[in-house]
Amino acid sequence: MEVQHLNVKFFVANPETVTLEDFLTIFNGWIQKRVTEELLVDVADYRHVHAGPGIVLIGHEANYALDNTGNRLGLLYNRKAPLNGNPQDRLARVVRTALLACQRLEKENKLKFNGQEAQLLINDRLLAPNTAETFSALEPELKALFDKLYGGAKYTLERDPEPRERFTVNAKAEGSFDVEKLLKNLS
To answer: Scanning 71, 92, 115, 136, which has its CA 20 to 30 A from the CA of 143?
Structure first.
């Protein structure tokens, strides 16, 4: 299956210590310093939306958000522009880009991410409807990605069964994983 419009979210380990307002300044700084390869253009404040998108750094190719959807705070990387390569390459690139953003936030802003859990979404309901058939078609690529990401540790993959939602898979590994270890496993 030729997947694009990939999203990945890594959850904050200490959400009670986070003040979303701070990320207005942090993400505006990312625009000014050009900290990513992507063109970043604006910051949107959605703090008023309960359990919503939080603070969104809008880019041409991708968005970054300190997202609180489902009352689970985390960094959400939303790739909008198509990527080259096979599905495995695209999945790995999206996860790596998200982890690099997590790494930057940990080093510069004292956030801590729980690498034990990750959420992968496909933001294309036509190409990837949220069905068991889509999961079956993508399962080999997902297993290859998470086998590598978690370095052979045991993990579970669980698809959100709600058909009205986007195709979403939650991964949860046994053991402890930090951002550095996940990046090392991907390389």
So the answer is: 71
